[in-house]
């Protein structure tokens, strides 16, 4: 397949950053989710709405291509990275190849992924963003209203057999909206660790990471209304609006993943979530910014910690003191943990007499309900999963590093080739062919496509040798 496999230098291109994997993210794009978390939109859905104390954001998809999805978000992050590498946000038009974009994304060099990139680019061109007093203008330091297509235009020019190549130029280009590129030029950007971002397993993890990575710049410890965080900044389905337990369940794998890479500080559940009237608050801290508070000491002569825990859950003080006197502390703590788990799920076993159920569970030593996982068991499981995740992330990062090295090698080869005159290029091709295995060349010389591929491989091998000599 001969589809944009080589990278082409652009005249007057700025020097590339020392670390090409240290990406950038535009602040307005990090604040709200511009895409669905799923791989496809529900049938008939073409609009997304988000709100903040400042105003609203409405996102509409085109009839032909619909709303952007989780993979489209990755493509947008990749396009921002290509812009940084190509012209460091100095121009809205960016020359690129889809092969180059696939390498940034870590996607395979296969036909279906080229098609997936095309689909994503079509979708972004058709998506309209309506910021109502929610577009931050870094020059004036205030919120404005803005209506824009994030990508104004895309030109794809495939390299196909028999078509002449425009030496020294990429085949494709995309052009950013003027408002967006001006925001980048006004330094409304933050750093984004691309290796870490693309290594995340879930779209929710990626979304939470981008949002909190922006917010942690201001301070390292945040509290959000749970629904506001989940719906307005992460993009969870509003079908869970009446079920806080379901929201927490949907967020938990992402929080576990972010804790596993030492981005979020692990917090006990009672510190992660707290009730504020009828609503829930979620607390999120940058790793290392805070330490879990030590359990309070109980002064002599007062109720034991076990009794305090039981009274807080509706048990009478006399009964709580009696239970604390006759049952081990760890046994009571285990039953309290089960009770809290049942309470969160609004289990029918505690609907009529919750405190009575808790007392009986201690006295009669009820077995743990099906599906229950103690905190200790959960910690052991999470540690095992985190160890596996760290190993997987390390492997993915190694692959990304290998791809980056290959990408740099291809760029160097093409840069060397483009410095040669046509006569020098012919001589190099002739020298490369002279070193070829005669049988291999004879087997493919009568097939134009195979012959071109074989000669290009020979050319690249010879240039590699010359570059090493240099």
In words, what does this structure look like?
The chain has 470 residues and is of the alpha+beta class. The protein has four domains: 1-199, no CATH class; 207-293, no CATH class; 305-372, no CATH class; 377-469, no CATH class. The protein is 50% helix and 14% strand. The chain has helices spanning 27-31, 70-87, 98-105, 111-126, 178-185, 194-199, 203-215, 226-234, 244-260, 269-272, 305-312, 317-326, 329-344, 354-363, 375-419, 422-434, 438-444, 448-469, and strands spanning 22-26, 47-51, 56-60, 93-96, 128-137, 142-148, 151-155, 172-176, 189-193, 221-225, 273-276, 279-285. The strands form four sheets. Strands 2-3-5-6 form a four-stranded antiparallel beta sheet. It has a three-stranded antiparallel beta sheet with strand order 4-8-7. Helix 2 packs across helix 4 (111-126), helix 7 crosses helix 9 and helix 11 (305-312) runs parallel beside helix 13 (329-344).
Labels describing this entry:
single chain, 470 residues, alpha+beta, 4 domains, four-stranded antiparallel beta sheet, three-stranded antiparallel beta sheet, 18 helices, 12 strands, 14% strand, disordered N terminus
